[in-house]
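Aim 2, interim progress. The first record below pairs a target sequence with its structure tokens.
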Amino acid sequence: MKQFKLTFILTVLMSMVGLQAFATKIEVNGLYYYLDTYNHLVAVTYMPSGKYYGNVTIPSSITYEAKTYSVTLIGQHAFLDCSALTSVTIPNSVTIIEFEAFRGCSGLTSITIPNSVTSIDKHAFHDCSGLTSVTIGNSVTSIGNSAFYNCRGLTSINIPNSVTSISDYAFQSCSGLTSITIPNSVTRIGNSVFSSCVALTSVTIPESVTSIGESAFALCRSLTSITIPNSVTSIGAKAFQSCDGLTSIIIPNGVTNIGEETFFQCFDLTSVEIPNSVTSIGQSAFYKCSGLTSVTIPNSVTSIGNSAFYDCRGLTSINIPNSVTSISDYAFRGCGGLTSITIPNSVTSIGEGAFDFCYRLTSVEIPNSVTSIGEGAFNFCSGLTSVTIPNSVTSIGNGAFTRCSGLTSIHVDDNNPKYDSRENCNAIIEKENNKLIAGCMNTHIPNSVTSIGAKAFAFCNGLTSIEIPNSVTSIGEGAFMYCSGLTSVTVLNPTPVVIAEDVFTNRTNAILYVPEGSKSAYQTADYWKEFKEIIEIDPAGINQIMSNQKDNAKIFTLDGKRINKPQKGINIIGGKKVVVK
């Protein structure tokens, strides 16, 4: 009984740390071994100095001191970096090929792993870059981590149906591999197993597989199609990242989550079918899938992650189901082909930059379930002509509608507790501090406004003139930056407001109208003094503000020149000063 216990303990320990920790190193006929005299077993090991080279035949047994020992293992590092090794014959007695046994054997061109072998340990053939042919015996049940990593010469490999798992990185960077058949004994494809197999054009995944690991097929640039069986319930993050040749994909009905960057930069992907088992679409899941023209999001999905459809320029429309409660940051940023979007009334927040650079978007309806609109949410939606803020919205981030150069109408629901569009001003004004935070080409700034927010009119190319009432004491950074059409600015405050350099970037092409007696103050004030011309006016003499530009009376400019029709800015119409918007 004691002998049995001792044998069992030794066996466990050897499996944990290797035979060499408990054995004597010997040399027989030019090969070195670790000798286990107790169990009459030996493992091939490395040379104490120098490297094996040429053709090596490993015997099935050796005789040492009149005793015969079976060769059952190729030990750790046995042929590590033996770059001059050209061939090796493994006998049928070997059961395990251990850690880094043949790593770096770049001269090795072919190898046959006999049926006696049950396990290929991690990194066993790592960097065997000259290896063109591998035969794996049908007793192998596991292929370890990075077992064939960077075996660039391999063009095909047959995995026997004895294998139940392909470990992480097993065939990563086998850049010559063109096809692979995974047997129906395999239940899991590990992380990065075929990552960077750039020549891989086809792969067959059997019904036995239930999970595909992270980055499993990442950077398989030649892969044009793949069938994922219905047995798969889990697809890891980045599983098909940068598979630029992939044109279509059907996700099986058992999958509940499309992970982070799963189809990141699959440029040629034109359609994807998402089943109603999926509840979440992860961050950057379809990032830069620029060829994607159609996607149906089922009503099982509750969350769309940050940048999920970032730069999917081929999308023209998308239906967001009413199961979704939030649209995350940059979810649809750069979807330049998107012309319309329907946001369901289940959504409570629109994230930062959610529709940024959707420049063909012509209409969007924000439901009254939405409470917050993030910073730059609709930035550069230059095709957008009107926007209505419902009474539910209580938070609007900076620059939410910046660069919406086509906007002609902005309206805030009359019952909104935080914002308004008082006096039909075509702007969004914060009630509490009377701050105008977003305007458009048709904005009229009411006398009650005390400040203009950062980038409130930035990139508003259609804006040609603006009157800033004397109630305004603060103008934020970039408030009128890159308003290329702005040629007339009227400021009714006799004291110049301190502004930054980027507030009026078109100032050298614009005329500044200021109250009588304040011209000298503006001529010495930073950045105000750089306007093309500064003209004094009598604010009290302005009788009317009009926008229709129609009047039958005689019309003159301020310098007395007769004109046929009113110009934007200050005109003398019928003997009265009139500001034409």
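The second target in this work package is listed in the same format:
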Amino acid sequence: MENFDEILTEFALEAREILDQLDSDFVLLEASPTDKKLIGNIFRGLHTLKGSSGFFSFKRLEKISHAGESLLGKIRDGQLSLDLNKSNVLLQMIDVLRIIIEGIEKNKAEPAGEDTALISSIGNLSRGNEEVINDNASVNLVADLNQAIPDVAIIQADAIGAEVSSNLSINENLNTPPAQEIQETQENNTPVRINLDTLDKLMNLASEMVLARNRLLPFADNSADLQFTNTVHSIDLLTLELQERMMKMRMQSISHVWSKFPRLIRDAANQTNKKVTLIQNGADTEIDRSLLDAIRDPLMHIIRNSVDHSIEEPDVRVRKGKSETGQIVLNASHQNGMILIEVSDDGAGINLELIKKRAIERKLISPEIAAQLSKSELIDLIFQPGFSTKEAVTSLSGRGVGMDVVKTNITNIGGTIDITSEPDMGTQIQLKIPLTLAIIPALFITCADQVFAIPENRIIELVKLSPTSQADEFQNFHGIPVFKLRNQLLPLIYLDKVLELKANTSTLDDDIYIVLLQSGSTYFGLAVASVDNIQDIVVKPLGGTLNDIPYFAGATIMGNGRVSLILDIDNIALHSGFSKQDLSTLNKEKQLDTNPPIEMMGILVFEIAGLERMAIPLDRLRHIDILDLEQTQMQGDKQVIYLNEELFYVIQLNQFVNGADTQHFSKSKHVPALTCVSNQRLYSLVVEHVVEIIQVPKQLIESATPQKGIEGYAIWNDQVINILDLDEILLMYNIQDSDIYPKTIDIEG
């Protein structure tokens, strides 16, 4: 019986894969109705499903699949042509098959149902009769896309820990290779199905190993026993590789979610009598499997909104000088340890006046406040519960349940959502979500002798203020503490006051550290006693008895074995006491924004021998490592190190920058290194210390005379920050003898 259940589970998974592929193929077939190869693929998929159904005696599946196969056979043979009527019925057939499969998965048996009307409709179409029998029990073509992703991952057997398969193809290979090649391929690349519960348990074990590793590292740093130190170092490297392998096993391409969207847009466009095309870029971008379900519903709602609210009817678009077919573009990419997903369209954009009118009508804001709101603050109103600009309720929108749920779901997984829109140009919605929720980088800070963790993806900047500057930088705005940062007033929250701790970080006698954070569209500073270090942490839930505490999102175990609470940035902002209306008038009243906004960029400040304030733009930086110089090797005349199955070229920065001490060589065994990528090669730039991340104007100040290795400089808090010229550094490094590097490069030859 147990074996039968396993076989049945395999059948249901294969059937889901076939139906998912058929969904996509049918939408493609509508655009290319004469594509014989595509018709053949769809026909074979239904044939495979019919054959498997017969093996299990699933009569409903077998009858419906047979009817669809007969219709497709005539389309394939050229006896019939595909049209919208046939597409609608065939897609309805796919939805009914999907419901039957879900019933089989749930009850281990085929659910009862009446399919006479559907089979008769398919039969009529097969005989050339366009009559379709309407069935009130037919499924909603859009709503049924809200299915869960199967709780099984597919992993290649030749590499335990390899990535989860991102493309599940049902196409049969018509070109049969030699038997020996088939055997070798099957032995090396046979997929293995693993239940996600098993992967979760393995991930939990890997997380516990990370915690144990973190507890060992402080002992090794303070030990004089070389053998013990080397053993801990080996454990550190093995744990890091195990963690990365486990993370890769949990990764799946975002195409598992995106593959549903062509069908979604097709159905939504038909319901609204619009023409819409979908363009997908970055569908192979990988994300933790646990987050796929979390982003599916928000993305579906955003896309439905784009079709229903933003894309205009064909005749309206033509009058505006646009193509009658609207365009929705999906982009996904990795950015600074986050997944960046953008949904943009070329529609009418967001009607700000209509938003203002609806908000006043629903008493969300007063007319006086509405007149003061900026463009971004007006757009934020669409995240209010119950808000909708639609006059009538439809199957797609108008109920006022949508964007507030989207924002809640994205925020719950540590992500952010940002919307920009221009009239008649379109709307762009940007989602930033973490790669994973299991192990995340976090900044440890101290307040009142207690250590707390802040997720790194919520941090914008770190600021240190000396006692002499605090009086000038700190101000009070109608009872709200604020501080001035680059001519901009930002609200300030004292962590010790929020958590009702005894120590008071607001004293002017000591240095004060401010962590600049983002919550939605709100930026604020969090005042703490000290900033400690950034480290990967394992997120643990607080448990039922502590879930009601609003300021904490979880907990982690530090290297010393103590528990550190993870701060919930959104709830801290929510309970801070300042409102968006206060913030919107903050700088208007102080009249600080009289100059045009300056485009800023993030830079990482570091030190090298002889130069204390060097920096590199964050967009040129991959990550920061701690290198063990004893592990470096020589590849010709180049110093290299092999880490995590990748080769890094090690560059001593002080040898290539004007003003640095070229005679200095680090005596420390472990040194920080900045990892960069250029021309598909990895470089580790060795530095003395990593200081902080700050924001400076993107337009750099040019040096009076060219400085080797320095692109320019910026002024920050009255200090000169030299910006590294990475391209020039790599050019010098790749020349055989750096002593012959010309002081002036003749670009023209």
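Residues 439-590 form a domain with the OB fold (Dihydrolipoamide Acetyltransferase, E2P) fold (CATH 2.40.50.180). This observation will shape the mutagenesis plan for the next reporting period.
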